Amino acid sequence: MTGKHCSNCDLLILHQDKVEELLAAALIGSNPDLIGNDYLVIGTVERKGWREAQKNPYGLKSTLDYLHDFREYVTFELENYGWGPADD
C-alpha cells in the first residue's frame, strides 16, 4: 500500500476507506473473520520484509524486524462541512 507522504513533517497520508478496502482484500482469503474489526496502523514495513511475509505469513517476528513504527498517530476528522467565515 502506498500513499501521499509529506516530507516536511514525515507524515504518511491515507484515506480510511482505501486502507479498509486493501485490508479486506488481503484478509478475505485467509482471515475473513477479521474484516470489519477495529485496527490501528502502527507503521510501515520495508518491501523486503513485506515480500518475506507473503512467503511465510506466520513469520511475524521476522516481519517486525522490518517495521518502522510511526512517531505519532494522528486522526483527522472533518469539522466544517463547507465554506464559511472563520470562527472569532
Main attributes?
single chain; 88 residues; alpha+beta; two-stranded antiparallel sheet; 3 helices; 14% strand
Report on this structure.
It is a single chain. By secondary structure, the protein is of the alpha+beta class. It folds into two domains: 1-36, no CATH class; 40-71, no CATH class. The protein is built from three helices and four strands; from the N terminus they run ββαβααβ. The protein has helices at residues 16-27, 47-55, 60-64, and strands at 4-6, 11-13, 43-45, 67-69. Strand 1 (4-6) and strand 2 (11-13) form a beta hairpin. The protein starts with a strand and ends in a 19-residue tail after the last strand.
Write the layout of secondary structure elements.
Blueprint: E1 4-6, E2 11-13, H1 16-27, E3 43-45, H2 47-55, H3 60-64, E4 67-69
Antiparallel strand pairs: 1-2, 3-4
Give a quick rundown of the structure.
With 88 residues, the protein is of the alpha+beta class. 30% of the residues lie in helices and 14% in strands.
As for the number of domains, it is: 2
- How far from one another are the termini? 41 Å
Quaternary form? single chain
Strand order of the largest sheet: 1-2
Strand content: 5-15%
Give the helix/strand class: alpha+beta
Rg from Cα: 17 Å
Number of helical segments with 4 or more residues: 3
Q: State the order of secondary-structure elements, H for helix, E for strand.
A: EEHEHHE
* Low-confidence parts: none
